[in-house]
Design goal:
mainly alpha; 4 helices; 4 strands; two-stranded antiparallel sheet; GcrA; globular; 224 residues; 17% helix; DNA-binding
DNA sequence: CCCTGATTCGC
DNA sequence: GCGAATCAGG
């Protein structure tokens, strides 16, 4: 498999969206997760909350220990700089599981977006004690609505048409011919439109009104 | 052992 | 440029 523009675009979006390399590789098909990571790095994407990252080069001495057991005697690595453009803090996301055994991250709003925790039934924002002030309470849906962004989307929002103005909610699966994004105008301050904000930031419904399935952008059974 | 991303290096 | 092999941490 070669890296076509579309595949690269998908890779980018999913990578930026917080999907793991494995998920991306799986979605793209025909490539290993290593390929995805390698490509991502070659594209300039990098780092992002990587689980493996406890070692930070302290300002001190450290004789670069050569690799003990390696087929090839690798010269000491210069400096494994890693923490440069890491998001301040990932907003807690409602996690649900659809396929594997580990958590399935939702597309992550890029840096600069408000850290919304969740949306209450009445449309108020739940936030940490410290974060006192919402950018703007969007009056999200009181109850979840079936994913039906718009009766007719004349032109499907392609991967490349994404901007911070349109809803990035993925419709279908990447790689499918009709894979596209919601494309509705976003809820200001959010990566999604109002409807999909209600899905992404799973509203906490009053007891009893709990029946809709847990929809997820990526990996979910199918949302459409 | 499972997972994760990072890096290296032969191709 | 690509990605398997490897490393390293959770």
């Amino acid at each position: 498999m070669s890296w076509t523009d579309e595949r690269i675009a998908t890779l980018k979006k999913m990578w930026e969206g917080g999907a793991t390399a494995s998920q991306i590789a799986d979605e793209l098909g025909g490539v290993s997760r290593n390929a995805v990571i390698g490509k991502a790095h070659r594209l300039g994407l990098k780092s992002r909350p990587s689980p493996v990252k406890a070692n930070e080069p302290k300002k001190a001495d450290k004789a670069p220990a050569a690799r003990p057991a390696a087929k090839k005697p690798a010269p000491p690595r210069p400096a494994p700089k890693a923490a440069d453009s890491a998001p301040a803090a990932a907003p807690p996301r409602p996690a649900s599981q659809g396929s594997g055994g580990q958590s399935q991250p939702l597309p992550n709003p890029g840096p600069g977006l408000p850290k919304i925790v969740s949306v209450g039934p009445g449309g108020f924002l739940r936030q940490g004690p410290g974060d006192q002030q919402a950018p703007i309470p969007p009056a999200p849906p009181r109850r979840l609505v079936p994913a039906k962004p718009s009766p007719e989307i004349a032109d499907k929002t392609s991967l490349l048409d994404l901007s911070d103005k349109v809803c990035r909610w993925p419709m279908g699966h990447p790689g499918e011919p009709d894979f596209h994004f919601c494309g509705e105008p976003v809820n200001p301050g959010f990566p999604y439109c109002v409807e999909h904000c209600g899905r992404a930031y799973q509203a906490q419904l009053p007891r009893g009104a709990r029946r809709p399935p847990p929809p997820l952008p990526f990996g979910g059974p199918r949302v459409r």
